[in-house]
Amino acid sequence: MIVASNEHSYYRDGVELFCMMLDQGMLPDGFAFSAVLQLCVGLDSVELGEMVHAHVVVTRFFMHTIVGTSLLNMYAKLGENENSVKVFNSMPVRNIVSWNAMISGFTSNTYKHLIEA
């Protein structure tokens, strides 16, 4: 349901579902974390992303390549290059998707600065 919320641009609804899940004592898995991190991008909310990042660390899902890639992708898309690099450097395993997320994030943020100038 969280993924569907994101796909249909119901970002707040997806976050509410995630919060309900936590309130009910259900532990998110890597797919739930990845989905909610995309919601943060849709909401353009670094603060919410940082809160989710804290949950990722506490639950030790930062060790999962998919979740780490979702984290760095979220930070990169929100223009937080330093945080995306920190996440990338802390990932125990990187794959081609992780590398592409880093390259894409830096490329898009570089072009944003050129357009704003």
Which residue ranges are poorly predicted, with pLDDT under 50 across at least 5 consecutive positions? 113-117
- Radius of gyration equals 14 Å
Number of domains: 1
Number of strands: 0
Q: What is the strand content?
A: under 5%
The SSE string, one letter per element, is: HHHHHHH
Characterize the overall form.
globular
Query: What structural class do helix, strand and pairing data support?
Result: mainly alpha
Task: Report how far the terminal alpha carbons are from each other.
Answer: 40 Å
Q: Main beta sheet, described?
A: none
The helical percent reads over 70%
GO biological process, one term: RNA modification
Protein name: Pentatricopeptide repeat-containing protein
GO molecular function: RNA binding
Keywords: Repeat
Using brief descriptors, characterize the structure shown.
117 residues, mainly alpha, 7 helices, TPR-like_helical_dom_sf, Pentatricopeptide repeat-containing protein
